[in-house]
Automatic annotation (TrEMBL):
Source species: Caldicellulosiruptor saccharolyticus (strain ATCC 43494 / DSM 8903 / Tp8T 6331)
Domain of life: Bacteria
Domain DUF3854 span(s) in chain numbering: 267-367
Gene3D superfamilies: Zinc finger, CHC2-type domain
Record's protein name: DUF3854 domain-containing protein
Amino acid sequence: MKHELIDIRMDDVLNLLRLNIVKQHGNELNAYCPKCDIHKIKGEGHLYINVYKNTFFCHKCGVGGNALQLYAWLSNMDTKEAYKELTQILTKGTKRARKAVAEPTVNYNITVKSDNLAPVEQRDKVYREFIKLLDLDEKHKEHLLLRGLTETFIKFKSYKSLNVRDERKRKEICKTLIEKGLSLEGVPGFFRHSDGSWDFINYDGFCIPAKDFEGRIQGLQVRIVKENSTSGKYRWFSSGNVPTGTSAKNFIHVTGSFNEEKCRRAFIIEGILKADICSYLMDGELFIGIPGIANSHDSAVEVVKNLGLKYEGEVYVVVDNDYYDKKEVQDAFEKLKKKFKEAGISILRLGFNLSYKGFDDYLLAKARGECA
């Protein structure tokens, strides 16, 4: 019997783990980390959980991710095992739950943060000026060059480093933006200190602008470039974990050009940066990058509708070759396919050489003459 993919929400996981919650600021919880705060009895913990964003991060352990990854990490199992166990618990109503890590010290209520996200027109203006004030580190540029991009294309796409560790410099950048007549209120990544000064979140990585169908920058995704990082490669430039900040959403990214006369088709691929790379390696064909195969289905459908595509052979979905090993990926693809079918659009999954994990890896090898 086929099971539908279910969403693993942070509130589901919190109810099972029963963490030692120290305090709450809106949708953000501060807790004692069961890994590094074992003997701590007062003060703030190192573990921060954002219920609205469905994310966590331990600042001492350096581990972060989504609700499923939190459950897996604290339960000492991989995500596949964790997903299987959570599915059993959440869908079959089993009474079994993991042993509590600690009794909560305060009650927390799971509420949905009011959506204070600024209009896309405002975000677009802020991010465009913000990017101009940033530089691209050599290690980040080297990473992009190794993935098959040229210096010209890297500059054209406005990839910039976000590892601005000096708070004074970050505040100066924000001040410059405000002096240009821009409002940072409601723009993900920016937040205000208690003295009223504006700042932004520092990341050890570079940003990738995620643009909508009209070419406006909706948000910035961050590619973490850090050795021995266990908290995931990609995050959104977001300040939702700060009371005066704003959470990012799972934005899609439209890149390349749609030439109705030359080639009437579009590709949907998991990954914002991967969409840019694949479009570049395929002479600018149109790609729709989604944050993950299980995310942003409605937004992807809307873009395809705007393009006027609906027949077989016009819309292709590209997923990594771990599709064949991961049932959750297969289920997510079927869910996406169903969503498009309901909209009257036919999609096909595009297969490629199984020697390569990602479609971008395959295209790069092909461009270098390493495979057919």
